[in-house]
């Protein structure tokens, strides 16, 4: 849950404020964890691979009567690692694009936010999501607020707006994937796909209108919040105000255009990364850009389920799409799903861990070291 994670990040020992000089620094270093934290982190990743392998074996046994390990090894050996490296490079680029989009959405709060600070927060935040699951989502807005000196509520609002745009993009892609299902017209999948794209477009139009209506829409939302019970209002009012504050940026056509452009660019880069991965395997090199775009949709839908350290949903979505829709043998599909998880999600972990240790984050307890006060000579 977000509240415990935020409490951990904000937890600072009383000694850090009461002890000066070297003892304060020593206490901060003990909290940081250093090599011990990294060793435990590697242990968690190794155990996660074992659990993911067990889950993949269970799926293959249930759906295909078992898997042949030799075929998985053969599929890995047959990969063209130059294409895999290109896919990984594009995946890293998406984190830069996300940082650029965040800076655009921060315009109403801080016009000249540091791109480096936003990238650091993005790398650490997605590493936290990898290790903690969806509960780690709040790490990124917390770090942005801390490093840029703005309110946490405003950055939670920015994060909410970002999630809404990504959700609408994933929804539109999912509709496209449904419309491309073979024999989908008989199952009604094609009609459902077109309806899904229409719903995503309507929601985007609503966001646009909501942004331009400005203060009128804000008054209507806040009046609805006032009608809520006191306990619910106390919990939600701050987050809603932060969201409305973030939505103020969408009143500017320049900001709104920037958010839309970076969102399209982000998903285009993700699709390009999947296409490169397809080219790296003999089993999928025949698939083109339309198949890569539909594949991204299935992976995004599966990625809703994000288990700490394992992922799970994205690998399952990739395996099912490759084996059931594109006729790839289950062993090759499993190998590609694992490689996709590594090059798309795990690739940011070394960067995030290193930057997190530099920022004073203990990855074992998800706590942050407060910088020691300087003592006058």
Provide a descriptive summary of the structure in words.
The chain has 377 residues and is mainly alpha-helical. The protein has one domain. The protein contains 18 helices and 4 strands. The chain has helices spanning 2-10, 14-18, 21-32, 35-64, 69-77, 81-105, 115-132, 139-148, 152-179, 184-187, 189-213, 215-226, 230-247, 253-279, 289-302, 313-325, 330-344, 349-359, and strands at 306-307, 311-312, 361-362, 367-368. α9 (152-179) crosses α13 (230-247) and α16 (313-325) packs antiparallel against α17 (330-344). Residues 11-34 and 371-377 have low confidence and may be disordered.
Offer a few descriptive terms:
377 residues; mainly alpha; two-stranded antiparallel ribbon; globular; disordered C terminus
Q: Catalogue the unreliable spans.
A: 11-34, 371-377
Oligomeric state: single chain
Elements, N to C (H/E): HHHHHHHHHHHHHHHEEHHHEE
Q: What percent of the residues sit in helical stretches (DSSP H or I)?
A: over 70%
Name the structural class.
mainly alpha
């Amino acid at each position: 849950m977000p509240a415990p994670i935020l409490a951990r990040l904000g937890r600072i020992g009383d000694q850090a404020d009461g002890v000066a000089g070297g003892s304060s620094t020593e206490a901060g270093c003990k909290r940081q964890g250093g090599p011990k934290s990294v060793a435990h982190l590697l242990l968690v990743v190794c155990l996660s691979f074992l659990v993911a392998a067990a889950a993949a074996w269970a799926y293959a046994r249930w759906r295909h009567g078992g898997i042949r390990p030799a075929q998985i090894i053969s599929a890995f050996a047959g990969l063209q690692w130059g294409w895999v490296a290109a896919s990984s490079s594009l995946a890293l680029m998406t984190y830069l694009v996300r940082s650029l989009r965040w800076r655009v959405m921060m315009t109403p709060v801080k016009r000249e936010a540091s791109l480096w600070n936003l990238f650091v927060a993005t790398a650490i935040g997605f590493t936290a999501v990898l290790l903690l699951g969806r509960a780690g989502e709040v790490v990124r807005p917390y770090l942005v607020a801390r490093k840029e000196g703005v309110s946490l509520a405003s950055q939670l609002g920015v994060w909410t707006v970002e999630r809404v745009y990504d959700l609408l993009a994933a929804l539109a892609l999912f509709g496209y994937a449904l419309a491309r299902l073979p024999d989908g017209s008989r199952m009604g999948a094609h009609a459902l796909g077109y309806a899904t794209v229409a719903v995503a477009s309507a929601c985007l139009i609503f966001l646009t209108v909501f942004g331009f209506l400005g203060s009128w829409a804000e008054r209507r939302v806040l009046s609805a919040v006032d009608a809520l019970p006191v306990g619910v209002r106390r919990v939600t009012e701050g987050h809603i105000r932060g969201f409305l504050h973030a939505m103020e940026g969408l009143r500017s056509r320049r900001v709104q255009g920037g958010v839309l452009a970076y969102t399209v660019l982000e998903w285009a880069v993700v699709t390009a990364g999947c296409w490169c991965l397809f080219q790296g395997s003999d089993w999928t090199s025949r698939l083109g850009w339309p198949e890569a775009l539909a594949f991204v949709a299935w992976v995004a839908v599966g990625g809703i389920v994000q288990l700490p350290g394992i992922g799970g949903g994205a690998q399952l979505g990739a395996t099912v799409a490759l084996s059931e829709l594109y006729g790839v043998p289950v062993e090759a599909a499993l190998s590609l799903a694992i490689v996709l998880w590594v090059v798309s999600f795990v690739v940011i972990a070394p960067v995030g861990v290193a930057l997190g240790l530099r920022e004073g984050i203990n990855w074992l307890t998800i706590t942050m070291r407060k910088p020691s006060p300087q003592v006058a000579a």
